[in-house]
Amino acid sequence: MAETSVLRMVIFDFDGVIADSEPAHFEMLRLALRSQHIVLSWDSYCCKYLGYDDTECVQHILEDYGRPAVSALIEEIVAEKQRNFAEYIRQHCLILPGVVELLGDLQKNGIICAIHSGAIRSEIETILAQGRLREYFREIVSTDEVTRSKPDPEGYTLCLTRVNRSLRSDNQIKPSQCLAIEDSLWGIQSAKGAGMFCLATETSYPASQLTLADKVVKDLTDIHTADLRQILNHTRK
After folding, report:
1. Helices 154-165 & 185-193, crossing angle to 10 degrees?
2. Dihedral angle, C-alpha 207, 151, 95, 101, nearest 10 °
3. Could you give the CA distance from residue 6 to residue 25 in angstroms, rounded to a whole number?
4. What is the mean pLDDT of residues 64-85?
5. Do 188 and 182 meet the contact criterion of CB atoms below 8 Å apart?
6. Last residue of a domain, one of 75, 91, 107
7. Domain hosting residue 191, numbered range
8. Residue 217's beta-bridge partner residues?
9. Domain boundary residue, one of 42, 71, 91
10. Torsion sign across C-alpha atoms 203, 184, 88, 125
């Protein structure tokens, strides 16, 4: 039998999708690594480390640069990076073009919105509050709440499970009725692993590195609910 998937929920990645925060993450990480005399380039960050949460990112960098990847040092670098980033986001609005308009359109069309991100919860909440966007999201799953980061599908599956708890048993949302919006291969693999469709934006990587997504766009400017529905509007065998 064939079934047509109906869009019921959109799950946004955060850094690079909702917020233009990846350059700031990189800069604050670069500063925190100075104590180890590690000079990290933007290209290296994007190619090797962008998909990790802070702890995994620092661990892999220390290992790659021949430094002792011990817990105490990792925690020290992560703490400094997060302090610097928290100060930065209190002073800057980072919401990307098209996000506010898309969220408003999804709300008007009765589509549930959520977030699954490798960022920590406090960073997400601060940036959403600054952009006055918190009310749009039914659920947020941050790196604080998962044991396995992207590309593992754990976070997307958890996000859907939490939303379904608020719905009647006869009105549960299926993974095939969800669309993730991502900006990296790690994120796309995570969404696909959870059985969801995926739209990718070129905010962090070129389209040539995002081919696993169902559709790739430059950014979310002029993207509407109808465009997202079209991604799901095909027949599954």
Report:
1. 50
2. 70
3. 36
4. 96
5. yes
6. 91
7. 3-21+94-236
8. 201
9. 91
10. positive
Please write the tens of the pLDDT for every residue from 147-175. Answer: 999 999 999 999 999 999 999 999 999 99
CA trace torsion 198, 203, 208, 210 (10° rounding): -20
Q: What gap in Å lies between CA 99 and CA 221, rounded to an integer?
A: 7
Of 1, 3, 5, nearest to 232 by C-alpha is 5
Cα(190)–Cα(173) distance, integer angstroms: 18
For 235, the enclosing helix (H) or strand (E) is: strand 235-236
How many structural domains are present in the chain?
2
**81 plus 198 within the same structural domain:** no
pLDDT of 233 > 50? The answer is yes
- CATH number of the domain bearing residue 39: 1.10.150.240
